[in-house]
Structures
1.
Amino acid sequence: FAASRGLAYNRPTAPEAYSSLRTAPTHLLVDRGLYRFLSISDLTFDPGDLGEIELIFKDQLPAEAIYDYVVATKQKEVLVPNLPLLYKLQSVDGYDGGVLPLARYVELARLLLAEPLPDGRLGEQLTEMPPSRLLGLLNVRYVIADKVRDVWLDGVYYDLGHEAILGPGEKFQVADLPHFAATALGLVSHLEGARDLAQGTPVAEVLVADDRGRVQRHLLRAGLDTAEGGYGAAVAHREARIARRSPRGSDYFTRLGLGSAVVPRRISIRYLAPAGRLHLRGASLVDERTGTFVPLIVSTRGRFRLVHSGDVKVYQNLDNLPRAFVVHRARVLDDEAAIAAMGDETFRPGEEVILAEGEPLEGGGGRDEVEIVLYQPERVVVEAHLAGEGYLVLTDAHYPGWRALVDGREVPIHRADVLFRAVRLPAGRHRVEFVYDPLSLKIGAVISLAALLGVVAVLARPAAAALKRLLKKSHAERR
């Protein structure tokens, strides 16, 4: 009891620390589909209404209680550590939503982290956005991220939550452009391995095509528009305007004028230098006439869309996979080989599954239909129509005690993609039921029943002896 006095639950604060709703979870609550989310934040950001919070509670709460209220507010914004349970949202970073923090979960996390901590949450360890295809395998539809590493330059906000990396001859096109009239394009970037490039050397070509079919060509030059990120005395070009410094190096800023206002329909960047790489960290369209702007997402790690921007950002993963889907190709590999294969950028989790055991499959695709008609913690029912033989993959944790029934007949569950479940299905319509029916529960029930009967027997023995003595005494008195 004495040791618990210092714990947070013994420090009362305003009830709104628990009951009030923040904007990021509100956005997720609107989507009533079956999905998971991931939060990436170390909680070092300040809520936008910090001043209002302090003003409202300064005469009602002590400073320590206000501090606890602010921390609770930030935790609600990014839904950590166990707050998804409150809102019935499913996080990939917790016990709910079909994902268990098993040893194989840590193994799978090696795809996202070089050395994941066995007892650490992903969101506290990630420093960059994971590839959308791997998030999609985890059924992560939304990613919540703070804005601590983003920047404001000349009154314009730049989202640095993603990165497009281009090597010699490689090209990148900005996806999901909004309808926005812009007079300038701002870019945040740095070079890697380009120390020997002379001042003014063209390193990238930027093409902007507008809604009238016109194409503008701009060049990014070393020492003027961008520069080596890990800058030092041996670099042959000067530093460009610094956008942000970090322990890993510097990012640089440039603004490209577009002349009269244009509505970009396509923006592409091609790396021109024979060596090194360009790291494009952020971009924003700017209307200098009004001071308005729209931040763009630049990523060579998949397709994302910014769907909410407040104290934190909410990205939608456009490459998300449903919780259950069908594939027609399968390989059988051990876990080490599976991790290596899944880490290859050519691996497409929506087209192929890697099994720990079972039969490989090399079939063709088709129009498959998959619908989860019931999803409960201990029972999942899926209806599937397959154009050809394939595997139904359910991205819930593979765990002892789960049974699978296909059209009422029990079939084996294969461990898929290190952590998940899969069953093999022939072509046609099928009803697949996953039921949690562990043998340990039955053994426990038998042991409990035996123990109960033993207790009853022990308790009944003195009572039976007493009854026997009473009957014997009664019989003696009659005689």
2.
Amino acid sequence: MDVLANDQNPFPDKPLELVGQPVVESGSGTAAVSGTSVQVTPAKDFTGTLVVRYRVQDATKDPDRQVDGRIRLTVQGRPAAPSTPQVTEVRSGTVVLAWTAPANNGSPITGYTVKGSDGRTVSCPATTCTVSGLTNNVSYTFTVTATNDVGTSDPSPASASARPDAKPTAPGTPSVTFGDKQLKITWAAPTGYDGSPVTGYTLEISPPPASGVAQKSGLTGTSDTWTGLDNGVPYQVRVQARNQAPDPSDWSGYSAAVVPAGVPDAPAQPTTTRLDPVGTQAQLQVAWAAPKDNGDAIASYTLHVLRGGAEVRSLQVAGGTTQQAITLDTSESDYSFTVSATNKAGTGALSAASAPRRAFVAPGAVTSLTASPGNNTVTLTYGAAPGNGASTTEVAYQYQVNAGAWAVMPSDEVIRSGVANNGTYTIGVRAVTSLDGVTYTGPVVTSAPVAPYGPPNTPGASATSGDTTVTLNWSAPARNGQDFHLEISVDGGGWQNVGASGGSTTVGNGYSQTHSIAVRTVDAVGQTSATASASATSAPPPAPSASVSKGGSASPNPGNWVNLSYANINGTYTVKFWSDQGGVGVFWTETVKFTGSSAPYQTNVFYGYPGSHVWVEIVGVTTSPQIAW
């Protein structure tokens, strides 16, 4: 470089001169003087700015008049390799990368190229680049190169593995069912996204339970039971899904608020207070204290009435009420009461039974009389008649049939006389109290009409054989208090209603067939008799047979044609033609299709040895008699 060409010389007739050797002030290289020029040689691997200082003097050669000049050279090269790309964001089908710009080596960087492990390339103008169009749930790595006017850098080191993914859509709003200090939670899995499969769920509950833990993570199914909750507190839950994407799904909506609850505690032992009688019934008032409800208000109480220790009835009492007046049938047995409380969680345990108490009023009629039909019997049930203070040993009972004579009530209350089956009866009952030599009879209570009946009688069954059929017969039994119909089952099949009369049916379509009938009686109340049965077998089939005969001349062949007849043979069989000419042996074999029976017909076989014997064997079926030829 001629460094003096542009300098001002105060002595135009005398040239300027370079003094000494030039010095490299920055950068790497060498410099030397060559006449009025300075030759600068950058170092082999140097790029960037190279500064060389040189000194100029004029004709005076006065050191104080010497001045320094500087050469600034820009040495250009292709950029250095960028730093390792950093994965800054992963989205559905997309990865965002960033890296540090490398040294441009003297020439501004004009752009970058990102290359994926699948071979795709993306041009990017800056040090942040979005790579899209990737396949979700597939791992990728990326390198980046920088380009300037000189060329393209070496590739950077590969990025960390990045897996594009789409976060799941929000799961369905949970459905929640309460339990005792717990909630059972179910939800629908996310749908309609193209990311990796769901790997787990996080549940969140509000408000946080006593444990302080408001979330449960790592759930792999779509249901869970959250325990350790406080009964009586309304909770809401929501759910979030997670797959291999960096971010989880959005939260589902909160469920409806659900309150855990357990069944109420057992009430304390009830107390009773006697009230005025109501008509022929005694009346007691039962009272109890409300128990702990365990998280849900008591909706109702169940008051159980026990007589002699056995429950006789129960009634529902509203939840806000803790006492109930109850009327009672008179009885020689003591009454007691237990109470249970019910809320949405169910019914709690029974209280202890109240202290026993008697119910009594003035004498009256028996109650709830019913007459139940039996087999030539009528069974009576009724509530005891009020005894007006009399004990049970002082009260007896009588009955009458169709307003007839009174009779002593049997101890088992089963009437066995005058109530034969196939009749209709009304039964009157009255209480009889004998005190102080006086007999008192109470009002007569009459039952509804009752018709005794027994189990249906067994019908008749028989079977008769035919050649290829069987006739099955049935007959009706006598009535035993109830109308009836007959049912038959043929060959073990389903039962068929055939009415109330006898009859027959013919079944079968072949030889040696066994058919059976079962017959039973079914009455109007569903009782079924014992089953009568019978069976028979149709005649056996006739045996297969075959015969041969000597047919006409087989000329020009020697001998005569062999004729064949057969019966009861169907199918295609091998037929062997035998003779004893020169020893027993088969002289012809052919295959014949048999069609049941046939009169003699001419076969394709002829035979010419008079005096010998001929016969046929239908293999596997039969052999004909021998005939003399």
3.
Amino acid sequence: MLKKILLTHENVDISSFEVVTSFMKTNGLGYSPKRGEINTYLKDAPEDYLAVKVAVIFGIFGGCRREELYNVNVGDVVGSGSSMIVSVPKTKNGRRRMFSIVDDEGGMDYLGTIRKYYHWIASILNKIIK
């Protein structure tokens, strides 16, 4: 990604610089957040980011692509007490996919976050309809 950014914005092709390429390969390709950092974000982020929190939860449990997240509707999420079943209607390969979300034993309230988002969306829709 760094190569592409430099090529696009600065018109510099670093593929001819073997030392730079070697340095980038040895130091890793990118940053990948740890599960603890994600859980900290889910706990500490303000409620203004409720939609992002739900997208992160769907990403953790379902491995959803951004197009798949876009296609999920409120009716595709079915809750039953201690778990939720999410149905992804349109996937990359054209098959409907399902996954379940359960609360973490470590105290993460994933289901509570999704329920807050659901009630928030419902209140917005009620204001629009009235």
4.
Amino acid sequence: MSVAPDLNKVHEGFLREDLFVCVHEQFMTETAMVGDIVLPATMFLEHDDVYQGGGHQHIILGRKLLTLQTTAVQNTM
């Protein structure tokens, strides 16, 4: 929510009774606090991923370094 041009309108929108908000976050952000349910997301050390640098012609495979200790949901499938 902190990057929205009119934060008050966005906050009011998230608090509507007819809206169900599901948030997928690593931290308890302002957006996560207004969510009806928060799914914990993994951090980059907890899952395999492929990285590409902007303007470069190579990719890097980032291997998982930590075993999940929580019920976090992977960001990638």
